[in-house]
Amino acid sequence: MQQPEDKLLAEALGRINRGGKIASRFLKNDISEFDSELRLAFDLALERVRTVLVELSPGAGPELEEAGTDRVTFRVLTGGGALNMNPVVVTVDAIRSGERTTALHVRAIAKEGLIKQHASQKTAERIAALLNGASPSR
């Protein structure tokens, strides 16, 4: 069964190259995930996550995938790898874990061809740096 990320990546690769959509079925997924905790109240943490995702993908605001009182999921399509040409789907789950803390689960997924670019890992590292207020290297 095809995951929602696979469909988004196939469409993005198809926009880069006509055969990219078909070829994406044969490419392996490169997945990076990490958990983090922000020492911010839930609403402030959501604003930080939204700001990071907008900075990560200028011109394409994050889509709200799921929203509840204690859990919100955002998804954005951005670029990674060499010259940021490899599409990467980033999903961030924000979960209220306390009055002044918010747990985050970040998942970055990209397609890898013969040349390993580690686009998802580099994108996840960029997100971690941005969430912690650092200026990430590109």
Short précis:
The chain is α+β, with helices and mostly antiparallel strands and 138 residues long. The protein is built from 4 helices and 5 strands. Helix content is 33%, strand content 35%.
Word description of this protein:
The chain has four helices and five strands; from the N terminus they run ααβαββββα. It is of the alpha+beta class and 138 residues long.
What's the helix and strand layout?
Blueprint: H1 4-16, H2 20-23, E1 28-38, H3 42-56, E2 63-67, E3 71-80, E4 86-96, E5 102-112, H4 119-131
Antiparallel strand pairs: 1-5, 2-3, 3-4, 4-5
What integer value in Å does the Rg equal? 15 Å
Query: How big a fraction of the residues is strand?
Result: 25-35%
* Largest β sheet strand count, sense and barrel closure: 5 strands, antiparallel
The span between the termini is 34 Å
Q: What value does the average pLDDT take?
A: 85
